[in-house]
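Q: Hi! First time asking for a complex rather than a single chain. Here are the components, and I think there are two in total. Is that enough to go on?
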Amino acid sequence: MTIYEEGLGANAANYTPLTPADFLERSAAIWPNKVAVIHGDRQVVYREFRRRSRCLASALVRCGIGRGDVVSIIAPNTPAMLEAHYGVIMAGAVLNALNYRLDAESIAFILGHGGARLVLVDRAFAPLMQDALALMETPPVVIGIDDPLTTEGTVLGVDYESFLAEGDATDDWQRPTGEWDSLALNYTSGTTGNPKGVMFHHRGGFLSAMGNAVAFGLEPSSRYLWTLPLFHCNGWTFPWAVTAVGGTHVCLRGVEAAEIFASIAVHRVSHMCAAPIVLNMLVHAPDAVKRRIDHRVRIATGGAAPPSAVIEGMEQLGFEVTHLYGLTETYGPSGLCAWPPEWDDLDLTSRAARMARQGVGYPTVEGFRVVNPQTGFDVLRDGATVGEIWLRGNTVMKGYLKNRAASDEAFAGGWFHSGDLAVMHPDGYAEIKDRSKDIIISGGENISSLEVEEVLYKHPQIMEAAVVARPDATWGETPCAFVTMVPGQKGALDEAAVIAWCRDNLAHYKAPRRVVFQDLPKTSTGKIQKFVLREQARAIE
Amino acid sequence: MTIYEEGLGANAANYTPLTPADFLERSAAIWPNKVAVIHGDRQVVYREFRRRSRCLASALVRCGIGRGDVVSIIAPNTPAMLEAHYGVIMAGAVLNALNYRLDAESIAFILGHGGARLVLVDRAFAPLMQDALALMETPPVVIGIDDPLTTEGTVLGVDYESFLAEGDATDDWQRPTGEWDSLALNYTSGTTGNPKGVMFHHRGGFLSAMGNAVAFGLEPSSRYLWTLPLFHCNGWTFPWAVTAVGGTHVCLRGVEAAEIFASIAVHRVSHMCAAPIVLNMLVHAPDAVKRRIDHRVRIATGGAAPPSAVIEGMEQLGFEVTHLYGLTETYGPSGLCAWPPEWDDLDLTSRAARMARQGVGYPTVEGFRVVNPQTGFDVLRDGATVGEIWLRGNTVMKGYLKNRAASDEAFAGGWFHSGDLAVMHPDGYAEIKDRSKDIIISGGENISSLEVEEVLYKHPQIMEAAVVARPDATWGETPCAFVTMVPGQKGALDEAAVIAWCRDNLAHYKAPRRVVFQDLPKTSTGKIQKFVLREQARAIE
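A: Yes, that's all I need. Here is the structure of the assembled complex.
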C-alpha cells in the first residue's frame, strides 16, 4: 500500500453491500403515507408495505429460516408476491418464485433441487402444489395465502396473515453479509430435460433495478401495472425498480384485456411490461373493453420482437412501446432498443423494423456484442452476418445452481453466451435472427423442445421425435412435433392421441399443437436436422 | 462453501468493477452521431467525445502516467474539462480538478500534496498557474489548453491538441483493477489551515452518477447546462450522469446571466445545477437579459438552502427548482428534498419553507440521519431539536488523502459526520439550521445565522445577506450582518432600519447588533466566505 492509499480503506461509513432491500426502507422513510401497492379496492401505503415485509422477514427468521435458505412462492401478481420480494430477502433468504403454469412434476423437481424450506401458496394454486408436494419425500413448510380477490382453490397450511402476525416489524432485518450473497433463484426451461436454477445476487438485483429505472424513465409519480408475471426473473427486477423511485405498484391477478384497460384508466398507469402476446391481446381486444389512452403510458416488451402490426395497433391505442432484451440469466432486461429521435420521422414499416431490434446494452451492462462463436471476434456490422449475442457485466447471474458444467459452458471465455443468434446493424444495434437453443417461445413462456421430445420418446409406440417452433399468429410460436413410429406400429396413433399423451405428461401449454408422422431428416453423423423441420413446420397449413 | 455456493463465484462474465468510464464507451457505441458536447459554435458528437477522451488516456499512458498517478486540471466548464473526466480516469489515473479561484499558494499546496504528475491548464489561468508552479520544487508537466472562446492568458507548455495527437484512440484503456481504485481527488476549502484532499473511488463515481440520473430525471433527450463549476466535486458527478443517459452537455466558460438565459433558449436546456447565489443572480438579472422560460427547465441547487424569495423568483421565471444536499465528502448530492405532490397545493411561503429542507437520502445512500452527537441516537422528529447530519453508504469518500486523523474523525462510529446541524421534521425530512461553526451563541442562546439571513433576504431592498458571530464582552457573541443592496438601492437603508426589520420579524435577541453594507466575499462555488466576514466582524469597533 502506498502513501496514497494509506487510511483510505472501506469502513462502515463508506461501504455497504448493495441490496435492493434498501429501496423499501428508503421509500417507506420518505413516503410513509404514499400508496405503494394497489390491489382491487385495497391500497397499501409505503409504511404498511414495509411493515408487512418486515413482519414476513421476522416470521421467517423466527421459524428458523436462515441466511441462504431458499423460500419459494407460487402466486400471481398480488401484494403477497411483492411482499415476498422484500420479506424473503430481508430474512437473508433466497427468493424462488415459481412458474404457476408448470406441471406438478416440474414444481416438485424445482422445490427439491433448490432445497426450498418453505413455500408460500396462493389459494388458487393449492391443488397444483398439493400434487407437487405429494411427489416429494421431504416437502417444505407450507403457508397459504388467502387472497380476497379469488375464491379458487383452498388455503393450504398456515394462513399467511397468521404467519405475518408471528413476526415483528421492529426486528432487525438481515442485511447481506456481502453483495455477492444470493438473492433469488429462478428456473429456466433449459434445453436439457430438467430446468436450470439461475442464481442472482444482491449486487445484481440493485444494479438491474437502477438500470431499469434509468432505461424506462421511472420516477416517484410512476404507476406501474403488473401485467408481467412476477415469477419471470422477478418481474424483470421491477419490484425493486418501482420501489426504488417510490412509485406505485398496481397488482393484477390475471392478464385480461378488460381489466388491464380499466386499470390503466382508473389508476392512471404510466408504465407496464408485457410479452408481445399481451400487446397482441390488447390490440385485438373487443371494442367494448378497449379504451383510447389519454395520458402517457409506456409499455416495455421483450422475450420476442413485437410484430409490426402489434406495434402499429399499440401506437393507435396511444401506448408508447419500448423493446427490451434479456434473459433470465441477465436478471431480465440487459439490452434495449434505445430510440433515437430521428426514427420518429420514419414511416410505420421502418419504425416497426427498428423497434424489432434487440438494440444495445443497458447502462449497467459492461459488454454487449454479436460474436462469431468460432473465432470470438465481433461479426461484421452489416446487418446480415449471424453471430451469437455475448454479454458481460454485473447483472449477469452468479451461475446455475449445482450445475458447474452448465455454468462453465455459459461463461466460457469470460462472456455469457446467450444462445441468441443475431446480426449487428451498422448503427451498432443487434437484432435476433434465430435461437441456437431450440427454445420455443409460446405466449411469452419458454418451452424446451427437448423436454417435449423426452415425453414423446416415452410413448411405447413412438420411436423418434423432434419438436420445433411453428410460427403462430396468436402465440408467437407453438410446438410442432415430428414423429416416427416404432416399426409395425405405423398408423397406431393419430395426431389427437399424441397431443393427449403430451397433455397428460406435461404442462398443457407445452403440448404440441400439430403432429406430423414421418421419417426424420438426419445429418451423416445421425443428428436430426431441425432446420429442415422448421421449414416444414412453417409450411404446414 | 456449501453446495449452494459451489461454482457460483465471480468471473469475467458476471463481475466487473463499476466505473463511470463505461458510460462514455456505451453512449458512444449507441449514439455515435449524437451531440455530446456544445461549446459556443462547436458541437462534438459522442464518437468524437470518446475518440478525444481515449486519445487523452493514451497520451497520458504513453508519457508515463500510470495507475493511481494524479493528473490535475485548471479550467472552466469547457470540452477539455469534460474530456479530462474520462481521459484521465481511462488512463488509470486520478483526476484532480482545481478550484481556479484559489490563490497561487493554495494551488501549489494542492499540487504538491496530491503529488500531481501533470497539470492541464486553460490559457486564462496560465498566470495563476505560473505563480503556483514557481513556488514548487518539482513542478508537474504542464499541458496548455488553447480554448478558442477566450483570448485571455497564454498557452503554457505543450499544446493540448498536440498532446492529444500523441495518443491513439484505439489503445486499450485502463479499466480499474478494482472498484475501490481511486477516481478523483477534490480539495475542500477548509476554513482552518490547509485544504483536505477528498478521495473518490470508481464505485462511488458510478453509483453517484446513477443516483443523480434517477433523482434528477435525466434521460437521453436531456440537455444539461454547465452552470455548476466542474471542479466542484466533479460537477456533482454530472459529467458521468449526463453521459450515462446519452444526454448533451452544454458548456459555459463563465457564470453570467445573459449567457445563461441565451443558452437555455438556444440549446433548449432541460437540466442545470447551481448554487443558490446563481439562482439569485438570475432572479435579479436586468430585464433586458431575462427571458421567461417556455419549456421545462429543472434546476437543482444546493450547498445552502435557497431563500424563499429566490425560489419565488425562479418559479416566476418558469424554472422548476429541486433542492439537493451534499458535501464534497459525499460526491456532491446525497440527499434531496423529494417533492410530494401534495406540497404543490401549498401557498408560496409554505412551499418555500418545504423547499428549504435538505430532505432525505439518495437511493444510493444507505443511511441519512439527524443524530445527537453526544449520544449517537436520532434526535426527536419534532422539527426543533438540533442534531448533526450523519450519512453512510457507497457514495461516501474513501477518506482524506494522507490525513488518517481527519478521516478517522470524520468516520467515527461508522458514520460520516457532516458537520451540518439540522432538525428532523415529523415527516422524516431533515433541515439544516447551520453549520456547527456558523451557530452564534449569544448569552447562552443558540442563534441560527441561517434564520436571521432568511429574514434579511425577505426585505425587498436587500439582495444578499450573511450573518456571522462577533465577539462580545457581555454576550459572548452577537450576530453581525453583512448586506448587499439590490442594484439602484444603495444607501436606501441604514443600519438602524435593518436592525428594526429584524426585530420586527425575529425574537429580539436574534437581531443583528451591527450591520455592514458591502459586497460579500465568495468562494469559487458561490458560497459566501464566512470566515472572511468573521475576521471583519472581529475588527469592527
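A: The first helix of chain B runs from residue 21 to 30. Let me know if you'd like any chain examined more closely.
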